[in-house]
Amino acid sequence: MERLDMLNYVDGQWTGKDLKKMEVTNPATGELIGTVPSAGKEETEEAIKAAHQALPEWSKKTAEERSELLMRLNDIIMENGDELAKLMTLENGKPMTEAKGEVTYSASFIQWFAEEGKRIYGRTVPGKTENHRIKVIKQPVGVVAAITPWNFPAAMITRKLAPALAAGCTFIVKPPEQTPLTALRLAEYCEQAGIPKGVVNVICGDPEELTNAFMAHKEVRKITFTGSTEVGRLLLKKGAEQVKKMSMELGGHAPAIVCDDADLDHAADMLMASKFRNSGQTCVCVNRIYVQSGVYDAFIEKFVDRVKKLEVGNGMDEGVDIGPLIDKAGYEKVEHQVKDAIEKGATCVLGGEGKAGNGSYFYQPTVLKDATSDMEIMNIETFGPVAPIQKFENDDEAIRLANDTPFGLASYFFTSDVSRGTRISEGLDYGIVGWNDGLPSAAQAPFGGMKQSGLGREGGSEGIEEYLETKYISLKV
């Protein structure tokens, strides 16, 4: 693929040609693959103005009209799936097979909310007197500003964009500095689909300056963010000044519990898929594994047998399962956590080494046994291909260990006993619980966390509610 020098997309125009450029590099090679404009406050306000001006006409379209445009966008994404997947691999590093899977996953949100927008129902309620009528209607919240992460460059945009547009909102997205090209390609697809100018805007630039502009502008009524809990806290504080509607999908620290009656082969398959997807750089990937003492050694043997077959390399190469870490900071965090765990008594069963240089950072799939609760890796999200395993004796202990964190996004457990599984699933303080399932995400299901892992849900029927206001009309007749 040739170098891509792309522009911001504002009000149906490609803008920012004369702005300073930000470089985008391939994390597998360190090579320059493209540039995007570095916008600031002025350009962000232009995007907000465009979205605000487009709002009345877009919100007045019928749900069917908006659905038809979204379905057209879905078709264009799927028709260009190989191109989009290649672009994601180049700027994110994930293997092509995973990138192609993300294309399908990202399109599924477009398709789901194209239909869900037709089911935005109000209701009538019996009045308090004979001549009183109560009507409840749902209306779009207004201009939406989205701030998205680099680990799923397409899907983290579409699962915000699709419900926003289906609800009748207009949309601005600030993609991450590491993966802006995918976002701008999606803007091209929106243009091809015939989505009116100003309805979708993509603006790249300094994160703090763009975010501050979103927060300060009264016309931005909704902020949707996926990222770290630390940044989420700052956004919530800023959003409180104007009482903006906020959705926060924040950090996680997902536990997995393997009970002694679990199908160990299935558990090993599922946990390997969850832990090492995107090189462990997902907010819902397993971060710590708790295995009951009676099956501890047997599970580790099965798990290691699978993990050692994973191939590390450039995501563009055939047969690669594990791509690079996104940057130097991510690599150093993984290195530090592995070293800390070993110094505190963990045994490295597999991996434990990395390779850095020339702007690329690879780390071998790593399995640590004999992990304990005082290790950093058991308390802080890793975002890397390392699986620490700790022993437990009974279900109460496992649930206590799993819940001993301020985070509550995703959790997993494996048991063949329905009664036991019901107790565990209800005892875990997490917004997402995978019961014998290591890959629970789906467009039709509500995705989101409890505690310090966020506010609101994305996907499912709940996902579109985040972009709607409820209005009560009291009528005297």
Label this structure with key terms.
477 residues, alpha/beta, Aldehyde Dehydrogenase, Chain A, domain 1, Aldehyde Dehydrogenase, Chain A, domain 2, 7-stranded mixed β-sheet, 6-stranded mixed β-sheet, 14 helices, 25 strands, 39% helix
What would you note in describing this structure?
It is built from 14 helices and 25 strands. By secondary structure, it is α/β, with parallel strands linked by helices. The protein folds into two domains: 4-250 and 453-476, Aldehyde Dehydrogenase, Chain A, domain 1, CATH 3.40.605; 254-442, Aldehyde Dehydrogenase, Chain A, domain 2, CATH 3.40.309. A seven-stranded mixed beta sheet has the order 15-18-19-14-13-21-22, with helices on both faces. Strands 10-9-8-11-12-24 form a six-stranded mixed beta sheet, with helices on both faces. Strands 1-5-4 form a three-stranded mixed beta sheet, with no helix packed on it. The radius of gyration is 23 Å and the shape is globular.
